[in-house]
Design a protein that fits this description.
heterodimer; A: alpha/beta; Rossmann fold; 2 domains; 7-stranded mixed beta sheet; B: mainly alpha; 2 strands; 70% helix
Chain lengths: 508, 361
């Protein structure tokens, strides 16, 4: 038994309305590769932020080498030997590798010595780097090396890595794992955050699994199957509800072999997406955040255009059309981000009602806005969807998240669409409002609309969906009927393990 | 420790009060500056803000001048404000103003000395087109190559000034007076003269155009989808895209409108109060209009009032130069202070300043 390096005891952190971490305790041994596993929102980032000194715990304590450890800021954590590689890099494109490394150090040595050390360390750990190259010219994998080497120069005892493989090619992942194993042999502990089950089974000695802010288990991932891990991560309490079998109507929305590059540098490009949505069907799309959900919504809403024939609405090609043209034909969408995307924060609810409803509700005649009718429409949404607000003159940003969400979803439902796409319809919404929104979506489907719900909340998807698919790194799994789907299967679809079926079955 | 707290809603009170407060602060700071220059601050402020309208000696000359100076400021600022609302920053109205004047004067000089009712309307079209064209350069560079419209439009001002000088000394020089730089005096060419419509009021076609522009802009911003999209794009670009606004189209429209209005302002100036294409024709209206736009809260009605105020400082500035020998640059600093104080004060429209005891966030 190796001696514990870091011990967490009863760490608790609450944010307004959420208990992000609830009484979390575990130990990381010296040289151990320890996985932190959990769905989005399970509390992984809050936990590592506390270890790295970015967030102060409300309760509980940490000990490092048996000494009390309570870093008030990252520099203190670094001084005590805790280093972290973030998911998104903090590098300057216009500076070279050595200069970037120097910027992240407390007392950087002269650049020439530093360059030599970078070369030595990077070669020692099999991550070759040329200290003189401009960061702007490096690939994502090479940039990550810069971040890792920057950490290694500080000679860390504990290296925290936040989803490090999300930007890497399979070959680069192989190299990274070799480096991490070498570090582990030399006694550096690694806290490895991920939701990729096979990766964790391949690399880690121990895994702590979080769900809903609580620790669910600490186990040896190599002794568990990916299924068991998925089950722990997703929770066994979920039981897919029986939904009456419905006759599937005609196809209202179909997407065929669509690949689309993300418009955002950190975005996930869509890869070869195909599905068909029928009238009256609620399709649930699961997936861990950042696997292409935003891009899927933008592609369907028309904010990202695609080749004409790849997206069809009721048999009509709409890939090339913008949002308003698609609305006119009967497709509406409600993006995940309420403030700033689905609604303009500094505009009144009346103006926000106009935002997407102008065409279908005929709120403007030859461009001139009919404000009284628009206001009446906003009032209608407020009443029908029980939006708690003094009136339609109130600014969107003055509403609580749940109320604004009801307004946004209500606005789109009121447009009486043939197809509605919603992303995270109940994110941050209280339970009663969430139930209300789900019911409204189901009602719409009963009236014959096709409903596509993109969500990270599996409970929600199992409650509403007739059919089910998952997004993983921009790829969509096959659509399967939700009925009869087990929680384990869902977990595997989400974790991308569907590609690894043969290997997995062999392991059983 | 001072802590800034974002207000839940922008304070309505400060939105209205800040321009007035900014004027008062400018008077105080400006007074200090004038005192430092060795001039009587009270007399200088009086000369700038009050004498042009109320003094018996100056008013008969100054009052009509007020409209003559304010009209181009308002015309330009109304256009700029539309773009500013959409976060599209045309800083080069001065250049568009010059090119508008050159296009308009070019039409007039081409027809000289023919009479014809159609000449002046043609000049108006040419002036607006010239300004529009000059504004399309930053617009196309921005939409095509993602250049920064602030830099491009600003730098084009200096190009326009070179062009103006070249025209005044070359192509457009008055052939009857080859010894002097500058074109024919359009005021002496009946068909092209933007004359006073009512004697001694200062009202010329540019004043009428400014009023029409204010009304049109007001209706557009409050009642028309284009105005809604402009505001949407400025406040929440992603929501605008969700609402089906094409950023490219909006850049072209906003720069186009502000360029055309600046061009119009230039045309009315060169065919009226300015009279001819001269090297020193440009007088900074395009830059001062930026102050007018902000002082008027980017609201057409506010711009009307702010334009009159800044027009006043132009005339008052000239008076104080004449009477107190205050340098022209000091007047420009004075105008700049107005914008400076306004922007600084505007902070409290959106934020509340709280003093807290040492606790760290």
């Amino acid at each position: 038994m190796r001696q514990p390096l870091l011990r967490l005891e009863g760490l608790t952190k609450a944010y307004p309305g959420v208990l992000a971490n609830d009484d979390i305790s575990f130990e990381i041994g010296e040289g151990q590769v320890h996985a932190l596993l959990g769905e989005n929102g399970a509390g992984k980032s809050t936990l590592v932020k506390m270890i790295y000194g970015l967030v102060k715990p409300d309760n509980g304590q940490m000990t490092l080498h048996g000494q009390p450890f309570a870093p008030s800021q990252p520099s203190e954590a670094r001084q005590k030997g805790v280093a972290m590689v973030f998911q998104h890099f903090s590098l300057f494109d216009a500076l070279d590798v050595a200069e970037n490394v120097a910027l992240g150090m407390e007392n950087p040595p002269p650049l020439r010595d530093l360059a030599k050390r970078i070369r030595d360390v990077s070669e020692e750990y099999g991550l070759p780097l040329d200290p003189g190259r401009l960061v702007g010219d490096l690939s994502a994998g090479e940039r990550q090396r810069v971040e890792i080497v920057r950490c290694l120069l500080q000679d860390p005892k504990l290296l925290i890595m936040d989803e490090p493989t999300s930007v890497l090619t399979p070959q680069e992942v192989e190299i990274l794992f070799r480096t991490l194993r070498q570090l582990s042999r030399e006694g550096t502990a690694i806290l490895y955050i991920s939701h990729k089950l096979e990766e964790i089974r391949a690399l880690c000695d121990e895994a702590t699994i979080l769900r809903g802010g609580k620790k669910v288990a600490t186990c040896d991932p190599r002794e568990k199957t990916a299924r068991e891990l998925a089950e722990l991560m997703v929770g066994q309490v979920l039981t897919p509800p029986e939904r009456p079998a419905k006759d599937t109507g005609t196809v209202v929305l179909s997407v065929e072999n669509l690949s689309l590059k993300s418009n955002h540098p950190f975005g996930t490009s869509l890869k070869d997406i195909s599905f068909q949505l029928h009238a009256g069907e609620v399709m649930g799309i699961a997936g861990v955040a950042g696997n292409g959900q935003d891009e899927l919504l933008l592609m369907l809403s028309g904010e990202l255009v695609s080749p004409r024939d790849r997206v069809q609405l009721k048999g009509q090609p709409i890939g090339h059309l913008g949002p308003n043209a698609r609305r006119k034909l009967g497709l509406v969408a409600a993006p995940e981000e309420r403030l700033g995307h689905a609604a303009a924060p500094d505009m009144s609810l009346t103006s926000n009602a106009l935002l997407s409803a102008v065409g279908r509700k005929r709120l403007a005649r030859s461009g001139f806005i009919d404000w009284p009718t628009t206001e009446a429409f906003a009032r209608e949404i407020i009443e029908r969807f029980d939006v708690r607000t003094p009136g339609p003159h109130v600014l969107a940003r003055a509403l609580s998240g749940g109320n604004l969400q009801k307004f946004v979803i209500g606005r789109e439902i009121e447009l009486n669409p043939d197809v509605i796409i919603v992303n995270q319809p109940t994110w941050g919404v209280d339970a009663s409002a969430a139930a209300f929104i789900r019911q409204a979506l189901l009602d719409l489907a009963d009236k014959g609309a096709g409903v596509l719900v993109i969500s990270q909340d599996l409970d929600e998807l199992l409650e509403v969906a007739d059919s089910f698919a998952a997004l993983n790194e921009g790829r969509l799994t096959k659509v399967r009927p939700a009925k009869g789907l087990t929680v384990e299967e869902i977990g595997l679809m989400m974790g991308g393990a569907h590609d690894m079926h043969p290997a997995h079955e062999a392991a059983e | 420790m001072i802590r800034l707290e974002k207000r839940k809603e922008p304070s309505k009170f400060w939105r209205i009060a800040n321009p007035f407060l900014a004027v008062i602060l400018t008077m105080i700071a400006g007074g200090i500056m004038f005192a430092a220059l060795g001039k009587d601050p009270v007399a200088a402020i009086r000369l700038i803000f009050f004498d042009p309208i109320f003094s018996e000696t100056f008013a008969s000359y100054s009052r009509p001048q007020l409209l003559i100076k304010s009209a181009p400021l308002i015309l330009i600022a109304v256009g700029l404000a539309v773009g500013f609302k959409a976060n599209i920053w045309n800083i080069g109205a001065e250049g568009q103003y010059i090119i508008g004047a050159l296009f308009g004067a070019g039409v007039a000089l081409a027809f000289f000395p023919q009479p014809g009712w159609y000449i002046f309307p043609l000049m108006i079209l040419a002036g607006a087109f010239g300004g529009f064209l000059w504004a399309m350069i930053p617009a196309i560079l921005k939409t095509r190559f993602n250049t920064n419209e602030i830099l491009v439009s600003l730098l084009l001002v200096y190009v326009a000034e070179r062009l103006l000088a070249a025209m005044a000394l070359g192509l457009m020089r008055n052939p009857d007076q080859p010894g002097f730089p500058g074109s024919r005096d359009l005021r002496r060419y009946e068909a092209a003269h933007n004359a006073e419509l009512f004697a001694n009021t200062g009202i010329h076609w540019g004043v009428v155009a400014a009023l029409i522009a204010v009304i049109f802009a007001y209706v557009m911003m409050t009642r028309h989808m284009l105005g809604f999209h402009v505001q949407l794009a400025g406040q929440a670009p992603r929501a605008a895209r969700f609402g089906g606004v094409s950023p490219t189209r909006l850049v072209v429209i906003c720069l186009g409108i502000s360029g055309a209005l600046a061009g119009l302002a230039g045309l009315f100036e060169v065919s009226g109060p300015g009279g001819q294409v001269r090297i020193e024709f440009a007088s900074g209206y395009g830059f001062t209009a930026i102050i007018v736009a902000f002082l008027g809260r980017l609201n057409p009605i506010g711009i009307l009032l702010a334009g009159l105020l800044l027009g006043l400082t132009y005339i008052g500035g000239e008076l104080s130069q004449m009477m107190l020998q205050i340098p022209g640059a000091a007047i420009q600093v004075f105008q700049g202070m107005l914008l400076f104080f306004l922007l600084a004060l505007d902070f409290q429209t959106n934020y509340r300043i709280r003093l807290t005891q040492g606790a760290r966030a």
